[in-house]
Amino acid sequence: MSILQQIRDKAAWLVFGLIALSLVGFLLMDAFVGRSRIFGNKSTVIGVVNGNKIEDADFQSRVSAQEEQAKASGYQMNDAVQQNIKDGVWNEMIEDAILSSDIAALGIDVSDKEINDMLVGTDASPDIRRAFTDPKTGMFDSQAAAARINQLRALYKSGPKKTGDNSQYEFAKRFFEEGIPQIIKVRLKEKYMALLTNSSYVPKWMVEKMNADNSQLASVSYVNTHYFTIPDSSVKISDEEISEYVGKHPDQFKQEESRSLAYVTFDASPSKEDSAKLKKEMADKVEEFKNTKDINSFLGRYGTQTDYADAYFGKNRIQIPVKDSIFALPKGGVFGPYLDGGDFVDAKLVDIKTLPDSVKVRHILVATTERNGQQIRDDSSARKRLDSAIAMLNSGQSWDSVAAKISDDPGSKDKGGLYDWFASGNMVKEFNDFAFEGKVGDKKIVKTSFGYHYIEILGQKDFEPAYKIAYFSKKIETSPETDQAASGLASQFAGESRDAKSFDDNLQKTNLHKSLAPDIHPAESNIPGLGINRQLVRWLYDNNVGAVSEPYAIGDKYVVAIVTEINNEGPMSAAKARLRVEPILRNKKKAEQITKKLGSPASLDAVASASNTTVLHADSLFFGTSYLPNNGGMEPKVVGASFDKQLTGKAISPAIAGNSGVFFIKVENIAAISNPAGDVQQQRFMLEQRERQNIGQNMVADLKKLATIKDDRGKFY
Prior knowledge:
Blueprint: H1 3-10, H2 16-21, E1 45-49, E2 52-55, H3 56-72, H4 79-106, H5 112-120, H6 126-131, H7 142-158, H8 167-197, H9 204-214, E3 216-226, H10 239-248, E4 254-255, E5 258-267, H11 272-284, H12 286-291, H13 295-302, E6 313-314, H14 323-327, E7 334-340, E8 343-367, H15 379-394, H16 399-406, E9 418-423, H17 429-437, E10 443-448, E11 451-475, H18 480-496, H19 500-510, E12 515-520, E13 526-527, E14 531-532, H20 534-541, E15 552-554, E16 557-567, E17 570-571, H21 574-598, H22 604-611, E18 616-622, E19 627-628, E20 633-634, H23 636-641, E21 656-657, E22 661-672, H24 680-706, E23 709-711
Helix pairs in contact: 3-4, 7-8, 10-21, 15-16
């Protein structure tokens, strides 16, 4: 590549690295204004965080940027990937809004000197340092970084050209308008985090007290009258009692807005008839496939799920169940149709050769085309440049030095052009064919879609039969008849089930299975058990409890849904909280009944006799544990009471309502085990480090709990 191209590649971090950093961005970027939606004057605010509005245009801009980055990274865009990107951007923007006000209020800032240091100084960001570090010396070249940034500054100030290529200007513009601001934002967050984490402090007395407490050892006897001795059915919990409990514990029973639905499905996947029809069609093509001389033309005419690789693969690299049958074919023979996953396949054995399993080569590339398809030099210029490189080699210069000077391949130029032991299929066809079909010591100029390569084969190993196979594959798909049959059944069910009663009645008549999808939030797309379908979620929020949907096509099925529950933001309803609260209140009432029944017993033996149970003993109960021995379970109240010195010497304690039953204990002894003098300072350090780590991990989540967040994305998408 050209020198300019090398500089561009070297500074690729300026766009891709910094865009990646936006995944953890935290300050609100300037909102786009003045953009109207297609719905006229509808509000463009999709959310509000602590009074700060989040504009749809800003959200869309960030989502688009993330989608472009995902595509550039090789991700295939689908509903799931797009939803993950949208959710990620939304969480970033919430974090932006929450942190921005705190950072401003604290007066945290980044000076010009710090910015300069993050770009070209001793504190250069990892991406910049990596881009401008000499691979041979491992030293960061701050002068090269500064020269590149100054070049970009000049391009940015000069503005776009009226005609011609403006890619360099756009590159510089992104760097100064997006890249540097992002670096500043990351540094601001680092300072904010440091301010919080460095405030962590553990006093010496606390560590000493903790050590003293943890050295205590108690010996107790106890009796547990289990709650299960009273039937659950005999204890009734009203909705009023549950609501009262929820009101006393509001933080534990907060809920976001959500709705729930139930649904039935009608299978529209390919039928046996669809599969048999495709298999026959594939069988009918075997002779034509066998006799064709132009494989690509044949596959293009009929369509295939698997493109023709036109390359040889060693037998150990071919991992399909029927490979032995294919290997046994004569050249030109076809095996199939056979089933591979959801496809029927005809496989044609095109050719067989004995080739190495892997090769080692070195090369010098003079590029004519960038990876994005943009031409950077013509064939004539590229060939002349490569000829000069070959002349350097012939004059005695090393491959290492010539590759470093001439080669446009960033993956190998700093390693003397070396590619060390790679398998077939990892390079473009022309490169691959020479490397595997040539001999060790061969050198050749090879033209590929990237440009001109001068290649030397350094090694080949593990020779084995290699096969060139063409696969003609077709996906088994649902026929119109199968699809119409499933759609008709779904439509019939939906038409006859227009309310909750008829929905359930028709379930019984048809023996269909009803599935539940609980707690779907307004902006969600994923429906538990079904997958992604934003339209059904929108329908869910446009209807009331008992409403029945028309059929929705989701994947290979048709779905008819019914709204079963509407949960408004705020405290849980009694019905919603019952599952969690009812056992707590039931055990509380059982504890009262058991305590009243046992009265004021004089001894543990009296309790055991009245409860028809036995006295148990724990002679090594540590203060720092919450568990009772003898499968006593987690009982922190009981363990805590065991170290109450006021109970020492008494025959029996008051009743203790534990997790599994009502306990009475007798504290027989409280002692302290020998505790070797620990390093209190080291303990303090470890506790402070753990606290700082917790702050770092939980900071944003904790701030979100304190924030007022309104999410209206569900009204827009």
